[in-house]
Amino acid sequence: MQNLVLLFVCFLAGVLLRSLKRLPSETPAVLNGFIIHVSLPALALLYLHDLELTAEVFVLAAMPWIHFCLALVIFPLLGRLLQLPRMTVGALILTGGLGNTSFVGLPMIEAYFGREALVHGIVVDQLGSFMVLSTLGIVTAGIYSSGKPPARVILQRILTFPPFLSMVAAVLLMPFDYPEWFSLLLGRLGDTLAPLALLSVGYQLHPGHLSGNIRNLTLGLSFKLLAAPLLLSLLYLGIFGLSGLPVRVTLFEAAMPPMITAGIIATEHGINPSLASMMVALGILVSFFTLAFWGFLLEGV
Q1: CA angle 107, 111, 117 (to 5 degrees)
Q2: Helix (H, G, I), strand (E, B) or coil at 258
Q3: Quick check: 42 and 191 in contact, CB under 8 A?
Q4: By three-state DSSP, how is residue 171 classified?
Q5: Taking the model in full, what pTM does it have?
Q6: What is the spatial distance between Cα 249 and Cα 256, in angstroms, rounded to a whole number?
Q7: Contacts of residue 140, Cβ cutoff 8 Å, sequence gap at least 6
Q8: What is d(CA 36, CA 285) in angstroms, rounded to the nearest whole number?
Q9: Which residues pair with 66 in a beta bridge?
Q10: Given CA atoms 276, 128, 195, 256 in this order, what sign does their dihedral have?
């Protein structure tokens, strides 16, 4: 639970620092740059390196990919139906299609299912959410920020995205053991992601963002916290006929609030930053109640 307190404190610190004007206006860009180039690559090198690839792992890791594909279908349809601006649709896809399966997900998994369930959450986060962000997420951000860039440009963005490069390096280094000092270094660098990300989100938040985004926030959070977990539950439990602790944890991860880093990617690409920030901030607050609901429903699965 201390991780959740840390998220709240850093978010509040960002809001206060903005209101007091104690930091320059470029602060979010600097923080986001550090997260993308240092914090995320460190986490990829640390956690992906130790994962064991089995059939069950791929079943669990498939959930975030399916989740994001649902967002890719549903939000453009809603955009055409409701005549939403292109940037709004892009922000909803990124934040509604990617869940905070790590810094909110892992503490919540431990609280609801016990420490032994964390390994399943790490699989979903690293082989699922993280890889979706590094591939489909970057492609989506590129498309919605600058129209329809050539395939060569999209591929270049993926291959030069620092977390993706670290992910490839982690897989190539799997046969080799890390020195203890290197693992500790990666852990310390990775620990900076959550506080800096929430500080950045809080700093970019403005009271006017809520009033102008109520409909869009309702659409995005209803999908992310309720509709998508329901559809994925029907798929995994009803169609696939799966059960047990790994599946419970996977579906619980599907109900997590929007990924902090997805909001940062949207902001970095100029894709409705105000909506992306509000999706992350409000989503975390609302998820305390919706996750209790899903935790109760999944108890007997």
Answers
A1: 80
A2: strand
A3: no
A4: helix
A5: 0.82
A6: 11
A7: 72, 90, 93, 94, 97
A8: 24
A9: none
A10: positive
